[in-house]
């Protein structure tokens, strides 16, 4: 969405002075896109979020004061009052399957992950 907005014909004519923050999610954000959103849209506080609909929906998020590298190379930190555990159901060892638990959510992925 941000890429489409930046490429919009006449983008420079829009007054965006009231923008300061926002959320990016759904796919990784390239460093250059993050830089353009900050510089051209004035959204210095934009963050990256990760989550699932079943987890209400954000479980992990970067902070507005994280570096551009941290905001584009990671999905951030686990949210307050949440636990995230990655477990292989067959061995009990750490694996790509994800489990998120918190005050209002409990979700797990079972079965083959590869």
UniProtKB/TrEMBL annotation:
Alphabetical UniProt keywords: Ligase
Molecular function via GO: medium-chain fatty acid-CoA ligase activity
Stored InterPro entries: AMP-dep_synth/lig_dom
Presence of keyword Ligase: yes
Sequence ranges assigned to domain AMP-dependent synthetase/ligase in this UniProt record: 8-103
One Pfam family linked to the record: AMP-binding
GO biological process, one term: fatty acid metabolic process
Key word Ligase present: yes
PANTHER family the UniProt entry points to: ACYL-COA SYNTHETASE (PTHR43201), MEDIUM-CHAIN ACYL-COA LIGASE ACSF2, MITOCHONDRIAL (PTHR43201:SF5)
Family: Belongs to the ATP-dependent AMP-binding enzyme family.
Protein name as annotated: AMP-dependent synthetase/ligase domain-containing protein
Source species of the chain: Nocardia jinanensis
């Amino acid at each position: 969405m941000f890429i489409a907005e930046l490429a919009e014909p006449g983008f420079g004519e829009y007054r965006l002075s009231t923008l300061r923050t926002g959320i990016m999610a759904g796919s990784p954000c390239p460093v250059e896109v993050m830089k353009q959103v900050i510089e051209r849209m004035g959204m210095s506080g934009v963050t990256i979020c990760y989550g699932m609909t079943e987890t209400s929906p954000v479980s992990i998020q970067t902070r507005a004061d994280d570096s551009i590298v941290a905001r584009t190379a990671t999905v951030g930190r686990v949210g307050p009052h949440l636990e995230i555990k990655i477990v292989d159901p067959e061995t009990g060892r750490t694996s790509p399957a994800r489990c998120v638990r918190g005050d209002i959510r409990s979700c797990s992925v079972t079965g083959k992950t590869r």
